[in-house]
Amino acid sequence: MAPTFVLAPDSFKESMTALQACHAMQNGLSKIFPEAVFIKVPMADGGEGTLDTLIAAAQGQQVKCQVTGPLPAQKVESYFGLIDAGQTAVIEMAKANGIHLLTPAERNPLLTTTYGTGEMIRLALDLGVSRIIIGLGGSVTNDAGAGMAQALGVHFYDNNGHEVSLGGRELDRVKTIDWSRLDPRLKTTEIIIASDVNNPLTGAQGASYIFGPQKGATPDMVLQLDHNLSHFADIVEQQLNLRKREVPGAGAAGGLGFGLLVFTGARIQSGVELVIQETQLEKYIARADYIFTGEGRLDEQSCFGKTPVGVARLARQYGKPVIACAGSIGPQADTLYKEGFTAIFGILDQSSDIIAACQNGAINLERTCENIGRILKLAEKQGR
């Protein structure tokens, strides 16, 4: 009887999308199992690729739009998704305010804004959706979601009654919050945050200290940004009687998690768990013989909300073998075996720099899966 393979990888960053990784896995395995059934379920964890994964899984549609980019004067051509017969919108904040939209020299989290993400939410509301899923990975912002809130009708004023402008630098000027003009449609719309980040808004493990440097923040900027986030959270607590700064995930996307919790009433869900649910991965795993997953890197940190571990934990419930492939395997990756992995393979065939490794990702993944297939075929023959 022909075996059934479920292929459920995340993207291999800067090398392959999750769907391209599925194709590479199938290309390799089908050389050994040409008669096999392959079920491709591209995965994501709330970060890069979540939007396209959910659109593909639900056979949804793209909605093209032009919104404000990471810098207030910047306009970007972007899109969000509609699934569930148009009742659910899927927004990937990085499509509007992501780090890839700025060159390294342009990245400055004192200046960047989430205003464009708010514009996407408003456009989704215009289409009459009842639910919005928002993926928070890949941001270049550190404004606590203030820009997003401004796009949805919230106004922030300083001591002199002047409106505060956009960007993380401006947050310590906020003295008064007027949310009387917040888009009323948010009250009847379910907002779900898909994130693999559990950081609080402020402090040593908060948005500025942990993620600020990769967004272009110098040490002095990090201090200023964390101070500004703390000030902004204080004002929210004093005027809106909402304390959300310590909620795990409030620090996601430079505090956009915090802003969504406060101004839209959103709830946070593990990104990989949400994608597993939306793609109906469980029903495919239940009838599979083998499950393949993977992403660019696997290490001890993968336990914290990363796609392959989410897949492995689900497969473990059904006693199914799980094989993971990764571009690199980090320290203490062997700790992942307790999560349900049967085997973990690195896909590189030789020492190479990151550029070459990314360029050859699909070739390396295909070859690795072919070799794994040869081992599985041998095990099948010996088991007869």
UniProtKB/TrEMBL annotation:
Q: Which EC number(s) are documented for this chain?
A: 2.7.1.31
Supply the Gene3D superfamilies for this chain.
Glycerate kinase, domain 1, Glycerate kinase, domain 2
Q: Does the keyword Transferase apply?
A: yes
List GO molecular-function terms, semicolon-separated: glycerate kinase activity
Key words, A-Z: Kinase, Transferase
Organism's domain of life? Bacteria
Assigned protein family: Belongs to the glycerate kinase type-1 family.
Would you tell me the protein name for this molecule?
Glycerate kinase
